[in-house]
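Question: what's this shape?

___
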Amino acid sequence: MTEDADRALNRQTDARTDRHVNPLPLPAQDLAGLAQLREQWASMPMIPRLVPDRREGIDNSWAGFDVRTVLIGEQSAGRFTFHDVIVAPGASLAAHHLQGTDTYWVVLDGELEMTVGTRTERAARDAFAFIPENTTQAVHNRSGEPARLFIWYSPAGPERAFALAHQRWIENPHASPDACREALSLLGFTFHRQGEQLPNDNRVNAPVSRLEAQIETFDDYANLRKEWTRRLPVPKLVTGRRGVAEIPMVGQDTLVLLNGDEGSGRCVVFEYRHDPDYRAPAHHQPSEEEIFLILEGTLELTAGNATRNIPRGGFGFIPRYGTHGFVNRTKTRTRTITINSPAGHERGFEMIVREGPSAKLPDLLVAHGWRVHEHYAPPPST
């Protein structure tokens, strides 16, 4: 693709920022209807989106679960759906799995009992989970206080199950949790019999080997991604930060909660800790989406042609070709969860630390999927 064509797509994507789109009708309340809807989503343009307050999301709540959906399939070409969820004391989502859909969790507040595969742990603030398709998952709030978490799915679709559960609850607020579970079951949630296990359940946090790759062109980068897809994804449950890999960059502590080697290349999940005045200049990525969840502080975030101060609990979605960047203008550190899909962004950061401000850096940034809108010299590595 020529540089002119690339920038034209960049401008077209930015022009769609925060454009309103109505949910499409679901052809039928079953998996066949959901499959048809996903085909429709795949042809829709993606929309850059900033959501500073969960109240801007769609209310998909049901008994015990205050759900605000902040990204739907119509906005992400069916690639993702994101939800800000407050789980009431005593509420639970029993053991289940999804076929063809990956699940991710990040705890913002409170404490939950989380099950991933055969592992069940107390998950407090900042806990993270990656539950690939056909892996057991469950969540239970056994504490006396509400707990808040972000849940996202790839591809989109579970938001329609949540919407159906919400509809059933609105129609009968006194219905048992089984009624909502029945609604979820119609659209892809398979709830387990007691003691049921899946083959992937015993692989939680299993070690993986690193696929080495010398990346000098974008074709090299694409080939690494292709090799990753040949691997089985490894479920992860991360309830602390001990042993989590770190990429040393001045001004931005970069922790890697899930990398391409572990997740079959589906995405990389970072926790960033930005020093005051840290700035990522405006850029776009032609081959990946980027998503921001604010864990702490306030970040001035650009998505497409909009720039807003996004506080704790805020959300940002930037599709491929969408302009993005950020600045920490506060006097304290900010922390974010940032997702890039597909994976590979972590190898770009490693390259920046390794190369420093060398003459090769501009070409290597392009090789790793970046299109920087201004001159960029990285901070030195520690």
